[in-house]
Specification:
Layout (H helix, E strand, L loop, with lengths): L1 E6 L8 H4 L4 H15 L3 E6 L5 E3 L2 E5 L6 H4 L4 E5 L13 E6 L14 H4 L4 E4 L2 H11 L6 E3 L20 E4 L7 H14 L4 E5 L9 H12 L7 E4 L4 H9 L3 E4 L9 H8 L4 E4 L4 H4 L6 E4 L6 H16 L1 H18 L2 H16 L4 H10 L2 H13 L5 H13 L3 H14 L4 H13 L3 H14 L4 H14 L2 H13 L5 H17 L2
Parallel strand pairs: 1-2, 1-5, 2-4, 5-6, 6-7, 7-8, 9-10, 9-12, 10-11, 12-13, 13-14
Antiparallel strand pairs: 3-4
Length: 511
């Protein structure tokens, strides 16, 4: 498959994760793109990088290369990562997917409330059940268009755990506004009970490209709290180095009060064999398995009862070496069974392969809009020949044969459908239309009447039948049949009402 990713905002290439800290969405894109390329797919990325660059098997292009037709034709899957840039380009991938790690209330996804934008995507790749449920309920995303996936971690960083893990070393690796303030308030109580405890903080806003001055201006009051015994405030570091720091640590302490849609930090900690003590909030309830790969604390992390229970669980792990070892082993096994990019990319590949064989409605609409019915028919025929001849595909092929005046082929395909589904009223009506175009009015009438015997309220059959009577000059029959259609109060009622007025006026004008 030819798969293209789109991203705007922070500039990066596949090498960026090795050189500096990077946000979760950007690093996810890099690892997913490489994993799909490793599976044999042709993968490219359009983003804010300044020049074309090849990293491994993936080619990175500046976003303005989208104006060059050779880069955007014959795309099987286009994945739009937190951007609506593909909607500004006149191209037609077989699948258009929106992928985001943002919560439903973040400004990045606000445009999805507009159905004109939302409906242009075929699927939404969402990172947890919680994110999916909130996108459906708050943004109006159709549940059938949701592809529930996960965040992942880059397994090569975590294959070998070096000896010498410090069982009293606590670690925090998220951004400062997600719970660091609460943690620094609680740590003196932990240190007092377990004097060997030390807390290592790898937290800043550099992952979002903030300058040091801006970072300190916004969160300096939190960083200042780290000036206490046993606390070590580090610079944010690239992911290979962060993996080493995690594997030296014992417990990830994350009193989160921000709604996570998945949480890469918690996944990476588990991959390193580091149990996670965090909040039973949003998707963290899926990312961490309570009592096995960590502890989930209910309530708001800023409340006294939360802090008391959080400290209790951290102390339990620091005091009980057997419990810590058991949770460490389970967390690591769980991460490698669920969260490697190799595993997640294989699931994406299977999903795309299943969906891409059926021309989606947006793809069909494109060819209808451009009038390229021959191309659409060729794709539909190929789909059916590959063994994916669903009812909808057969009906689409038959309708295109009619559109292109290939009436014999249209009749054959509608008859084949009816052999398998004799009660298929839509196939009966399409067959009736085909026969009417061939001048076989009696046979067409039989098809429409048979459809109405099965479904008396099928307005399309009433309208077509009335049209035949009108064309043959049977005005009273036509008038009665149009009235049947009008009384059903459907989308055909307006057309039927016009016909009723026209025929009534014509009958009154006769001497």
């Amino acid at each position: 498959m030819r798969i293209v990713f789109f991203s705007e905002g922070i500039p990066f290439t596949g090498d960026t994760v090795f050189n500096r800290c990077l946000g979760g969405m950007e690093s996810s894109l890099i690892y997913m793109a490489q994993a799909l390329a490793d599976r044999g797919h042709d993968v490219s990325v359009f983003n804010s990088c300044v020049k074309q660059y090849v990293c491994g098997k993936v080619t990175y292009y500046p976003i303005d290369f989208l104006t060059r037709w050779e880069h955007i034709q014959n795309i099987d899957v286009a994945v739009s990562c937190r951007t609506f840039a593909p909607l500004r380009v006149a191209f037609n991938p077989k699948l258009l997917v929106y992928w985001t790690g943002d919560a439903w209330n973040q400004p990045f996804v606000e445009p999805l409330k507009n159905p004109d934008i939302r409906d242009r995507f075929d699927f939404f790749a969402l990172k947890s059940q919680w994110q999916t449920q909130t996108f459906v309920s708050h943004l109006g995303i159709c549940p059938e268009k949701c592809m529930v996936t996960r965040n992942g971690f880059y397994a090569p960083y975590y294959r070998e755990i070096p000896p010498g893990r410090n069982r009293f070393r606590l670690i925090y690796t998220s951004t400062p506004y997600r719970g660091l303030d609460v943690l620094l308030d609680m740590f003196p109580n932990i240190k007092e009970t377990v004097p060997q405890a030390e807390l290592h903080l790898f937290s800043s806003m550099k992952v979002y490209n903030y300058t040091d001055d801006d970072d300190k201006k916004l969160f300096g009051h939190i960083y200042d709290k780290s000036n206490q015994p046993g606390v070590y405030l580090h610079e944010s570091i690239p992911q290979p180095e962060l993996a080493k720091e995690l594997m030296r640590s014992a417990v990830m302490v994350y009193p989160n009060h921000f709604e996570e849609t998945s949480c890469v930090a918690a996944i990476e900690a588990q991959a390193a064999g580091v149990p996670v003590v965090t909040s039973a909030l949003a998707a963290l309830r899926e990312t961490v398995e309570h009592g096995k790969s960590g502890f989930l604390i209910p309530s708001d992390s800023r409340l006294p009862e939360y802090k008391e229970l959080f400290i209790e669980k951290v102390l339990a792990l620091l005091r009980d070496e057997h419990l810590l070892d058991e949770m460490s082993r389970y967390a690591r096994e769980r991460a490698f069974s669920l969260y490697t990019w190799e595993k997640i990319s294989a699931e994406w590949e299977q999903f795309f392969a299943e969906k891409i064989v059926y021309p989606c409605q947006r793809y069909i609409n494109w060819f209808v809009k451009t009038g390229d019915y021959k191309k659409l028919l060729a794709i539909t025929e190929e789909t059916i020949q590959q063994g994916h001849g669903s009812r909808d595909m057969m009906l689409l092929a038959g309708s295109l044969y009619v559109k292109l005046n290939k009436l014999d082929k249209a009749e054959l395909i509608f008859k084949e459908l009816l052999r398998n589904e004799p009660q298929n009223v839509e196939a009966l009506c399409r067959l009736g239309e085909t026969r009417r175009l061939r001048g076989e009015e009696f046979e067409a009438i039989q098809c429409f009447r048979q459809a109405l015997d099965i479904a008396p309220s099928y307005e399309h059959a009433w309208f077509q039948l009335a049209g035949i009577y009108e064309a043959k000059g049977y005005l009273r029959k036509a008038l009665a049949t149009y009235r049947q259609c009008f009384d059903l109060n459907t989308e055909y009622s307006g057309f039927a009402g016009q016909k009723i007025r026209q025929i009534t006026e014509a009958m009154q004008a006769k001497p």
